[in-house]
Description:
Layout: H1 3-13, H2 17-28, H3 33-39, H4 41-44, H5 49-78, H6 84-92, H7 96-103, H8 113-119, H9 123-130, H10 137-142, H11 154-170, H12 173-186, E1 188-193, E2 209-213, H13 219-230, E3 234-239, H14 242-253, H15 260-309, E4 319-323, E5 330-335, E6 341-347, H16 356-369, E7 374-378, H17 383-391, E8 400-404, H18 409-413, H19 416-421, H20 427-440, H21 442-446, H22 465-483, E9 485-486, H23 492-496, H24 503-516, H25 533-539, E10 543-544, H26 562-571, H27 576-581, H28 583-586, H29 601-612, E11 642-651, E12 654-658, E13 665-668, E14 689-698, E15 703-707, H30 734-748
Parallel strand pairs: 4-7, 7-8, 9-10, 13-15
Antiparallel strand pairs: 1-2, 1-3, 4-5, 5-6, 11-12, 11-14, 12-13, 14-15
Amino acid sequence: MNIQHFVKVAEELNIKVKQVTDTIELLDEGATVPFISRYRKEVTGSLDEVQVAAIRDRIQQLRELDKRREAILKSIEEQGKLTPALEEKINAAETMSVLEDLYLPYKPKRRTKATIAREKGLEPLATKIFEQGSFDLQEEGEKYIDAEKEVNTLEEALQGARDIIAEWINENVELRKKMRDLFIEEGQFVSKVIPGKEQEAIKFKDYFDWTEPIKTAPSHRVLAMRRGEKELFLMLDSCPDEFSALALMDSMVLENAANAAVEQVRVAIKDCYKRLLKPSMETEVRLYTKKKADEEAIKVFAENLRQLLLAAPLGEKSVMAIDPGFRTGCKTVCLGPQGQLLSYDAIYPNEPQRKTAESGAIIKHLVEKHQVEAIAIGNGTASRETEAFVKSLGLPKQVIVTMVNESGASIYSASEVAREEFPDHDLTVRGAVSIGRRLMDPLAELVKIDAKSIGVGQYQHDVDQSALKNSLDDTVMSCVNGVGVEVNTASKQLLTYVSGLGPVLAQNIVAYRNENGPFKSRTEIKKVPRLGDKAFEQAAGFLRIRNSKNPLDASAVHPERYELVEKMAKDIGANVTDLMSSEELRSKIILKNYVSETVGLPTLQDIMDELSKPGRDPRETFEVFNFQEGVNEISDLKVGMKLPGIITNITKFGAFVDIGVHQDGLVHLSHLADRFVNDPADVVTVNQKVEVTVMEVDIPRKRIGLSMKSDPFAERGKPKPAGEKKRREEPETQGDLAAKLAMLKNRFR
């Protein structure tokens, strides 16, 4: 373990070094983030999941940096070029870019112009020129003309020397650092449409002629421009003003003299920038801004996913689910309270068949036969028409009719998971089942679908897929363990995300359950093949067994604390069941009496909180939502309409809202509230029910502008704030350039 890393992480996260070291020790032993934050508070000093995950990720970065450092030191040492001073610099490097800059002169490379010039014996000439002293350049250069070495003219000799000098400049660690800073601080993204592709690239219209600072460019615009470039619609440049870059290089490389050698170095500087340094820096900056944009996009995606996964469940009810359609009809299934498929049928209430009487009779019969308590209708094609039809049937008032977001249901229906569950049914039946189960328990159903397909991200296919997967897996695991899992009804996919399990043990649990019947206690879980003590320790507190003889098996109290709870009950002359059902009895317990070396007040308080609400679902209570009747298509919208909607996706620039017209509308950041909003996540959440005003309808581009302001039209007619859309300024005057050069020399000397 590198104690310096622990100190660094502690400083960055503003926590104690011991909290970092103890957390890393738990992680290295195989403990999961949910387990550590929930059941090891005394060890970590009550760090939450976000802090534990931050420690894990930062230490991983630093360990990767160390691996690269070791490889670089070994490579340079094998070349016989490792000096104590260089070794000290490499060991002191705190970032990968600094490490790579130090390694650049020693990095094995293909034959370069400088390599060829050295082979021609021109390095001594380059050295003399680079010293920038006063000497007869022609006389000195002619000494290196040698036909056998293919140096036939003075200019060829000078060109070779300049090639070597250009490489030296490019490998200057301090210059690269300052150039990197210049690119990031003063660089501009410049995006232009490729001529002739204006119509094909219409979705990138905002970036046909766009310029903005690299430093402040938001994640979504960086990813949008990069996608436009990747799809060959946009040309994207990401550099500072060339004058500024060359001025920086001049200030760091040129001597304050006027002679022929200085002029040769000046030429080499320009060549170095255009041929070596600019492409290298642009690549680095693109990687840097891409990583930064990815991190922001992934963060937004993960938070949206969390909110969607933790959406209010209807619970264990008998549900009818309808996957609506026109020509192919509406696939209709009925599900039991545990989500089991009871029946399936197809009805045709919409165009072109329009068998309303027959379809209505089928719906009524199924509702009565299966005692249906709720009807879930997917929000895809024909959803509003199907909803109106079902509501017109005069079903019992207690039957809930509600729309369900079906994003990802088609992905599930074609998946291996769906084929395992329903091998004898086609895709449409599986899709309808997914819609119904999503109403009953969104979390349990959505874990079966690739998170990227659920519809709450943006540019999810453009970001680093490994980083995205890790973040989304963390989010799903956090949600699953936060809610808890009923081990006797959970699917293999849901169990997979329980702390300490994974796919193999999840499958083994299901297999054991199928062979031996429901688990009767948490301790019986230890009988599952390959589920050892470590896995049991990690998983047990997050697994629930409702009908166990021990009431604690249905709670989040970890089995390692059962003995402690029993002692608490015994000390006040009660049993555990009484303790869980009586606030009066619990109030008699003095927590400080039970503090020990391994159990502190944080854990004791968690236990008391859990005893008061054992196994209670932390998610909100389900509420029925209805869209505006008569507004079914984008063509039905009129500017000024006020409509109910559900937030489906949150980005850094606003929130998307489903208003029931098969195309989500956008509430821009500036229209989310009457007050200034810096981050949409501060004021709205996924699945939140809102009222919006229609501001703009663009049918050809399928764009809907919405507002959540109380008086959204009050600002109309006012000029846009300065700087709302940054464009490149007029060319600078000669006086401006001179002033900038003076500033840069002072800044970088």
